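Example 231.
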Amino acid sequence: MLFGGLQKTTLVDYPGKVAATVFTLGCNFRCPFCHNPELVLPELIAKQPRLTEKEILKFLKDKQGLLEGLCVTGGEPTLQLGLESFLLKVKKLSYQIKLDSNGSQPQLLEKLIDQQLVDYVALDLKTSLEKYDLLTLGEVPKESILASINLLKKGKVAYEFRTTLAPGIVTEEDVSKIVELIKGAPRYFLQKFRPTAILDPTLLKQKQWEEATIIKVCNQIKPYFGECAVR
Ligand code: SF4
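Predicted structure in complex with iron/sulfur cluster:
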């Protein structure tokens, strides 16, 4: 496992739990709106301080009883060799585990769910399926994303879908297409794009989603989900 960061406490990343978050290094996507380019671009990863698995497990052992959960995010955690064995060690310390994923590795995701190594999965749906090549440079088959969606819809693990309303990447039409794929899901969140340091700063020049449009879209799609909100 390659770890590039540890947030020692978070009250917002794991629904209903006091948790810590670990950040893994490396990603097979290049989302222009990515807020963690230092975890994605090889030239920035090279400059990133590393944490060892041992250090993280020691931290978690010390915080037993104080923290309830661990969020594993990236980068893309499912690309990490050793993820399964790391999660097993975290489980042995009695932590609940939330995994954030871009959905590109459905087989591994299924294995983790079947072995009960994850308790909650947050799957990012970046845009409508036909536009995924914009984010993956054609390197990730869309069928993999669809397989991950269908896997979560089986309901073997608690989950949420979420979409960042990135200008130029996600339109109202894209949201409608995503909703067609996932309607009936327990949770779907629309995330506001934050115009801060991102992987491709040219995106900042694109027309942003207006607040009123975000609320309108959220209200339109709400009936299709158990919970649907703007973050
Ligand atoms: S937003 Fe997520 S999937 Fe996209 S490049 Fe960043 S870490 Fe990878």
